Q: What sequence folds into this?
């Protein structure tokens, strides 16, 4: 006895529709895409001691102020950071910290210390495989001539940095983690790795 297509269609169509319905309902809106092979979802961190001999002159740094770019002549030091990949440059983030007062606390860059005659500034930029930290002077309201960067001795500092992949940086933002607080960031990363 031969069955018409209408007779077997409900037996196949109904289970297929149920399978599609359950598969689609298992996905939640806002789920992150699965991790790609080789993609790091953990934060990396590093520490480096920088002495006066590690600074190079001349360098240049372009900072933003009131929507305009301002170019500064700088001394700079390069920190090797192989954790910074093209993926990090495109979708992740990097933050640098240092200890300006030898008290054990770390402050995020950019940093400006105002003195009587001028301001001391530290800023950074990064690219694949490295972080470049800049040191430079800016005038303040009492400034005359700025000191010569070429002959300025930069004291020894400890710099710390974090490298955060895109998925973790999104989670950190959603959870309200402030990148300016080194201890908070590292504690968060140790719990959410």
A:
């Amino acid at each position: 006895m031969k069955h018409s297509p209408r007779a077997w269609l409900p037996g196949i169509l109904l289970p297929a529709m149920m399978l599609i319905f359950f598969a689609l309902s298992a996905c939640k809106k806002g789920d992150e895409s699965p991790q790609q092979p080789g993609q790091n979802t953990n934060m990396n961190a590093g520490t480096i001691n920088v002495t006066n001999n590690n600074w190079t002159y001349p360098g240049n740094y372009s900072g933003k102020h009131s929507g305009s770019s301002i170019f500064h002549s700088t001394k700079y030091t390069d920190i090797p950071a192989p954790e910074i990949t093209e993926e990090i440059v495109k979708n992740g983030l990097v933050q640098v910290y240092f200890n300006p007062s030898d008290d054990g606390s770390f402050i995020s860059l950019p940093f400006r210390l105002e003195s009587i005659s001028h301001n001391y500034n530290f800023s950074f930029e990064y690219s694949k495989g490295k972080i470049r930290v800049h040191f430079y002077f800016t005038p303040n309201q009492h400034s005359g001539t700025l000191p010569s960067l070429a002959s300025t001795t930069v004291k020894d500092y400890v710099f710390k940095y974090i490298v955060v992949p895109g998925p973790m940086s999104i989670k950190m933002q959603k959870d309200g983690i402030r990148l300016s607080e080194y201890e908070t960031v590292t504690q968060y990363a140790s719990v959410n790795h």
Observations:
- Residues 1-10, 12-40 have pLDDT under 50 and may be disordered.
